[in-house]
């Protein structure tokens, strides 16, 4: 919600301004500095108008100084968080809000510290739990230490990763949503690489803040925050992709290279997050601190708490929590806008990265990329070069942003390597090789930045960021408290992917948050972020609000990834952010389902609930699974590498199995309004997953029956649009409608382009629904004939090859007619002995007795023997559309014939005879009329002969004669007049249109 | 089957193992290849299979002894293959054999000399034959046959081992021929090209160095490829080489060569003796040869129609169909000779109507334009020397050699 709000704000400055103002206030309260800083960069560019906000953020700047502040603030936040978790979420809510602000600041600081410290995660965690400041100072060490402890303890790592994830998610989100996070980063930005890390951290912080804001935040914060963030991210991404692309990109930028710009869009989100964070931090902080104090263990404990909180979180969210969130989201959204603006401003001012952010902001793809980057960063940090990796990652992220799509491969590789930062990085940010290098590099810088994402913080921040008003914040805080406490109780505080954890829905804002979440999933779909976002989401703008499930599915993957990252390294923060997104989506789903699960439980529940949930569960349950999930998540963001795909596919199978069924069952029943939207997205996500998986290798493992879409669209007319995502049942026409559509096309008077478009959409719907029957054959036959008529061979070939398999399946149709076409095609195109004789030997006796086939065989004979008289005789009597195919060969045949005549005839040949024998007369008689047939044909023939260099003379009677001897050596094949650079004149639009319309 | 005692089974197995290890250590190819030759159905192998089915613990037997265990990689799958082969589980047998073959090629690679080439030949042959049978079993069970393809990729690996410098290279052509057989059977003839290229361009291969039988087989297949490519001169050359060097007692092989060589020779204007067709049971070509001799278009067409399936399958249909022009040439030549007998001064002017009338006698109905076109093509392809006067509808023949013979050259395009 917040994100959306922020986005919208960014989009609509006025609205945002108001929001910003609020945010500003918030920012001032809590993390103004951080926000301002983060937002400054991103928003600065986009949101210059927000300068006011920036001024607010100015605080954030101070936040830059912030580190100190932040650290301090962080502790409070933690305290707040703890208190929040401990105390009733609601009570915390209101009070916490202010605290949140503080917390935000602190959080941001912590995040900064985290990012800087890279200890990041530990720092984050520790910060969250113990001292945000400490984490900062210690970030690297703490992170590492935490990292190790985390790693040993799956939970720990998870938490670490979670924390990181949050940060990541934050960063990711923050890119868009979390520009506020960006503000965090601002401080970090100041340090540049650190900034990146900081950003990540910030984002994470924010996320944690979010969670913290929600009562559960402390424990659930990371997760919850992450969840929220994720949703937000998704939403943001969606938004970004759609309208807020800028923001999303900004987010990404921030995450990547402390791109303040990206943050700008995110700023709004960050604001929200910050606001939320500020509240949550307190809650989270306290809880966390105690635990963190102990060191790694504390973090774990907090994580556990968090998980507990999560459960509670979820539950609360499910009911009131969601509402609260919504309200909170609304608040956060307002804040976010402000924050984002502020952050942008601050960012821009503080950080150089602003420029980066600027670019990022512009493109949704960028967002995705940044996310990826973050993820990669996080991962890398988690791996060897945690610190360095972070930094590098950030840098990488930038690159990645560019490369994001391509990165999937690397992601896969990364997955292969395990959650190791390198692979992940690679996968996420760059291609594998690049990723590795980057990761290593990044790892070093990462340490400095201490970018460890505090997933939990991020989660909290996200949650809070969502909140638009204090009520929401309070509610969120309450939820966060529960989440965190439950998480701590479960010991999942650290293990959970807070980043991945879906934000619990805010009562009012849920829709928005959801929408945000949905966008984030898009980024997760890394492969074709831009496209997917556009294609998938454009049609579903409304859905965004409603669609939490799709994000969930996407998020689960991320979640897993986050988990992995966290486990391995604090830096995972980036990954976590992704995870966070995933988780957020999951959370959202869960929330919707109203079943609150602890992280682990979540997984299980989530499985039952949705695929996304499954993903979370898997991540929680197994590191590997989480890794796979992560990978998948990574994949989602960028293009996952093959390995990742494979792993994802494995893990996804489960998800699919569960998720799909669940989703389908859930969604189908809902089949109306928002429910439909959900289902659509969910299935779409599932499908996209399956596609990714299938890409890896498990096509045969996919249960296509379960995935087959049943269309519900009643529109007869439908434009063809190549699917870039899973089909949406609402836009797919069922068989009876398709039949009408076919009749409509057949009776249509419109031109070929229209018909082709319609038929392709019919074909697509048939394919998507896996309808293979007479209707299918009819459609392909109709299209093939139309294509032949206008000479659209590529389209014809597509149909022909489909028909071949359809006929082979025993479906009735005009088999003979099309085997004749097939024969003619071979004759006219390849005409080699082996193909021909094998084709002919395969003809059945029935076929050989068929008129059309007989004709085709006769044409073949005429062509191989060069018998032009026979050829043109057959041309005249061609059944069906055989003549259309022969058309393609006419010129060649004529040229050969004239060559032959020139060689054989002496002294002359009357042109009228040539015209008659070579089919000119016939051709003209078709259009001309029998009377002028000869003359018309003659004229055309003369033109043709002249064009081919023949010598024509008039004899005594004035009749044109072909001077064979003179022509013998002068014949040539003219350059086709309508030749085009690409070699296919039928692609020349004007010509094509002319032909098509005739 | 006679009762087989455990002791007897044990004895047979150890006997086999002993012979195997002796053959390898003494580099005795002759006995080694017998031990690998599955399809020979030799009694010793079959009885061994019985023994293996009875005595289930042969693997332990192999691994217990240092002497045998070094061959475990080869022998263990080989035993499994034998068992399955005996039980007619050909797909499983193939899998096991391929495993054994892979282990063998691994060993073979390490042997410096080429002493085991013969054994490798046996393996290359066996794996192909077994794959074909396994594919039949697969398709009978409704599964997609893919073992032959797998055998092809195994043989490509073998080819890679052999196609280098050194004494082993003489084995390359045998493997190439086995590959040809697979590719032709699979219809993936284009895959032959890479192998051919390495044989014909690599300097390490002196073609005459290869064993005779491999050279003949190689020439047969490459000749067939040239037929597909419509390169009749090269096809004639290769198939003639194969015919000339083929063992005269392998009548079936000669027949196979002639099956392609005859159409090729026909298309360059060389007709076979009738006894040749008789001797090698290639009577389907008899009417075609007759048609060419008589200029009887109708006979050619009916002969083509009669054996269409066979010709299409062997891929010579299109070659034979092109003989039509030669039949026209023969027909015109006959008309020319008759005209010359009637009135030598006007013999070189042939009216189109006459040709149409002659075709009518052959029960072929063609209109003026079509015949004119045929004549134009004949002149164009240099089967008739002269020109066609359109106005008067007369073919004016050259006074000197109006119907040039092809004499070994294909009809030019």
Automatic annotation (TrEMBL), chain A:
PANTHER family, A to Z: 80 KDA MCM3-ASSOCIATED PROTEIN (PTHR12436), LEUKOCYTE RECEPTOR CLUSTER MEMBER 8 (PTHR12436:SF4)
Entries under PROSITE patterns matching the protein: PCI
Biased composition annotated in UniProt, kind: Basic and acidic residues: 19-29, 641-659
Pfam family of the protein (one): SAC3_GANP
Region (Disordered): 1-112, 128-159, 174-193, 254-309, 512-536, 638-659
Residues annotated as domain PCI: 792-976
Polar residues bias (residue ranges): 31-74, 82-110, 143-159, 180-193
Biased composition annotated in UniProt, kind: Low complexity: 128-138
Gene coding for it: LOC115751256
Name under which the protein is recorded: SAC3 family protein A isoform X2
TrEMBL record, chain B:
GO biological process, one term: poly(A)+ mRNA export from nucleus
Residue intervals of the PCI domain: 216-402
One annotated GO molecular function: RNA binding
InterPro entries membership: Csn12-like, PCI_dom, WH-like_DNA-bd_sf
One GO cellular component term noted in the UniProt record for this chain: transcription export complex 2
Name the record gives this protein: Enhanced ethylene response protein 5
The species this protein was found in: Rhodamnia argentea
Source species taxonomy: Eukaryota, Viridiplantae, Streptophyta, Embryophyta, Tracheophyta
Name of the gene this protein is made from: LOC115740744
